[in-house]
Amino acid sequence: MMRVALEVVTLVVIGVLLLMVAQEMPSFGDPTNPVHNEVSRYYIENTEEEAGVQNVVAAIITDYRGFDTLGELTVLLTAIAGLLAVLRS
């Protein structure tokens, strides 16, 4: 009985903390959101000069975030290999 009460109290505390954090988030479309910072402006203004391509999205994926993309690709290939190993057995 004590364990169930402790679990309920823990879940309530976590829920209250999540609600408090959600209230601190900026509203959707707010120009002061971190999404609308100088990084995106920098990419748009300097992509052609630094990367040598006109496609901003391709330049961000391959040049600016190349190691991140390589890590994501590694995770995907590992998941596919694991799935194939499970399906074959």
Note down, in words, how this protein is organized.
The protein contains 4 helices and no strands. It is an all-alpha fold. The longest helix is centred in the N-terminal third of the chain and has 23 residues, at 2-24. 78% of the residues lie in helices and 0% in strands.
Could you give a short description of this structure?
This protein is mostly helical. The chain is built from 4 helices and no strands.
**Mean pLDDT reading:** 89
Rounded Rg? 22 Å
Helix content: over 70%
Q: Structural class, from helix and strand content?
A: mainly alpha
Chain oligomer state: single chain
Number of strands: 0
Largest sheet: none
How many separate helices? Answer: 4
Itemize the secondary structure elements and their pairings.
Layout: H1 2-24, H2 38-51, H3 56-64, H4 66-88
Helix pairs in contact: 2-3, 3-4
What structural keywords apply?
single chain; 78% helix; 89 residues; mainly alpha
